[in-house]
Amino acid sequence: MAHLVLGIESSCDETGVALVRVQGEGVPQLLAHALHTQVAMHADYGGVVPELASRDHIRRVVPLTKEVLAQAGQALEAIDLVAFTRGPGLAGALLVGAGMACALGAALDKPVLGVHHLEGHLLSPFLSADPPEFPFIALLVSGGHTQLMRVDGVGRYELLGETIDDAAGEAFDKSAKLLGLGYPGGPALARLAEFGDATAYKLPRPLLHSGNLDFSFAGLKTAVLTQARRLEGAACEQPRADLAASTQAAIVEVLVKKSLKALQATGLRRLVVAGGVGANARLREELNAACAARGVRVHYPELHLCTDNGAMIALAAAMRVQAGAAQPSQNYAFDVKPR
Ligand code: KG4
Ligand code: ZN
Predict the structure, then answer these.
(1) What is the pLDDT of residues 162-197, one digit of tens each?
(2) 295-333 b/e with 16+ CB inside 10 Å = b?
(3) Ligand 1 centroid vs 78 CA: distance in angstroms?
(4) Which of 105, 276, 281, 328 could disulfide-link to 307, CB 3.0 to 4.6 Å?
(5) What domains appear along the chain, each with residue ranges and CATH number?
(6) Global pTM?
(7) Record-annotated residues binding Fe cation (predicted)?
(8) Ligand 1 contact, 322 CB (< 6 A)
(9) Nearest CA owner, ligand 1 atom 10
(10) Contact (CB, 8 A) for 291 and 139
(11) Separation of 123 CA from ligand 1 center, angstroms?
(12) Is 54 assigned a ligand-binding role in the annotation?
């Protein structure tokens, strides 16, 4: 059984490294984590530039690893297992984390384990002060994915529904761009929405009454585009804030209603929300209210662990090994799975 697990995340624009300790069957304990975000570097380009991302991961991953070990008061040699994000993500960026993990593993003569990025997000609420218990419904809402899952245990995931086009985070990001807001768009749109009237614009809620648990956000983006064009050159800021608030309300309503539907369909009374969009305050408010009214418990990751980080990767690896759901290996001929 691995006791100290180092986790490395490098799938997109954050380099994250973390160390967790496994003790028996309990939830692994986060000893230290460090993160470098590339947001400022990509902001000038309006989005993530893959090659710049890879080059920056290379610059950061060794110093962050040293920082984590120093924070935890542990020597490099104390690491029992090195975990990395195997995918999905940007190929070049993933290769940096995988390369670092396998080089460390080979040098230390310790096993390595590639982890699915979404499983990291999914399990991240276990690091919160109020960890969930299995089984639960998971609403996974990131920049690349929007999924509802039934989760019966580590590695026991049943996909109930997912987006047929854009992800919820993508809907936030693309709408933000149309509103002339910077990258990353989600938090920027949420800030502008605070000053707006969410009922000002009637925007579509695609697939809301589809009868299944799938999502679609592409039509919403088109509607936002139409409205944003009308606002071009407008002297007053209020309509933009109103459009931001209306967009956020449309995305949130769909996420909340479909989550409730998944709970109802399965009879489960526990909801776990994970992924970057899970940081959205309006989503949390509405889910909290809807779930409280139905006697459903909701769990979120700590706010700073909603977006990409190394802690969730170390945790997912540790929990998979604990559950016997993964076999770490000393084959250092690693590969990554961008898609
Ligand atoms: O999980 P994540 O860090 O990366 C992926 O795996 O995709 O999620 C990033 C996404 C971006 O689309 C970002 O705009 C969105 O999460 N996001 C938010 C908020 N914070 C991050 N969306 C809405 N409100 C927020 N507060
Ligand atoms: Zn992510």
Answers:
(1) 999 999 999 999 999 999 998 889 999 999 999 999
(2) ebebbbbeeebbbbbbbbbbbbbbbbbbeeebebeeebe
(3) 34
(4) 276
(5) 4-123+306-322 (3.30.420.40), 133-300 (3.30.420.40)
(6) 0.93
(7) 117, 121, 308
(8) no
(9) 143
(10) no
(11) 17
(12) no
Predicted local distance difference test score (pLDDT) of residue 297: 97
Name the stretches of the chain with pLDDT < 70: 1-2
CA pair distance 113, 5, nearest whole angstrom: 10
What's the per-residue H, E or C state across the chain? CCCEEEEEECCCCEEEEEEEECCCCCCCEEEEEEEEECHHHHHCCCCCCHHHHHHHHHHHHHHHHHHHHHHHCCCHHHCCEEEEEEECCCHHHHHHHHHHHHHHHHHHCCCEEEEEHHHHHHHHHHHCCCCCCCCEEEEEECCCCEEEEEEEECCEEEEEEEECCCCHHHHHHHHHHHCCCCCCHHHHHHHHHCCCCCCCCCCCCCCCCCCCCCECCHHHHHHHHHHHHHHCCCCCCHHHHHHHHHHHHHHHHHHHHHHHHHHHHHCCCEEEEECHHHHCHHHHHHHHHHHHHCCCEEECCCHHHCCCCCHHHHHHHHHHHHCCCCCCECCCCCCCCCC
What pLDDT, on a 0 to 100 scale, did the predictor assign at position 2?
66
Cβ atoms of 115 and 83 within 8 Å: the answer is: yes
Q: Rounded to an integer, what distance in angstroms lies between the CA atom of residue 251 and that of residue 124? A: 23
Residue of 307, 312, 313, 339 to mutate, ligand 1, most atoms within 8 A of C-beta: 307
**ipTM of predicted assembly, 2 dp:** 0.98
